[in-house]
């Protein structure tokens, strides 16, 4: 799996056996045997200059993924459209029971962030769009289960944001200027300490809650400061099944009516007809 992941992330030129071994942390002899087996199954192919790339044997898996994630093709077209219209980096995520899984990106440096296949817990703030249309009891249990625990004031604030998202049919956030330097300092500390996955997730959740402020209900006056827009893509059940995260970067080049129009167009394009 690590060898296939390494080849998936490589350039079109592929990797040598030694490069694959180095990325996977295995010996060159073990790697040679591994690649030979993968080549025999057609999962990797070897070029004339003895470099390896993903092979045609994976097409069956790609076809299966398209059945499981029907928005893969249309989602890529939508992300490209949004990227061109808004001059913004975009990613498409599948909403699961407890996680958001990134399934495509356009405009992001995937070696740094938003890599395809990454999973993120459905936590505030971006999990708010996934949860905004759930019944009150489910939302209340979810908010009370966030770690670190939210105070009653925090819960009331998040419930208001949920209502704002339902009213506008998407969410928008900006970095809180009062906490931007704190975000940078704590991010630096997290990077140097390398805490456990659980500790890192909880600290990141807390950091995100502190430094991001919803402007969903004030976009008429705050669009110029909006950093992120999260657009739900509804399924036949009426619940969001996918979401598109759009990084406006705090300097959107469109008016609010133009933004609403392009987001509604993408929503209509991707929402299945019953």
UniProtKB/TrEMBL annotation:
Gene3D superfamilies, alphabetized: 3.30.450.40, Winged helix-like DNA-binding domain superfamily/Winged helix DNA-binding domain
PROSITE patterns: HTH_ICLR (PS51077)
Any single Pfam family the record assigns to this protein: HTH_24
Highest taxon of the lineage: Bacteria
Domain HTH iclR-type: 1-56
Swiss-Prot/TrEMBL keywords: Transcription, Transcription regulation
UniProt-listed InterPro entries: GAF-like_dom_sf, HTH_MetabolicPath_Reg, Tscrpt_reg_IclR_N, WH-like_DNA-bd_sf, WH_DNA-bd_sf
Protein name per its UniProtKB record: Winged helix-turn-helix transcriptional regulator
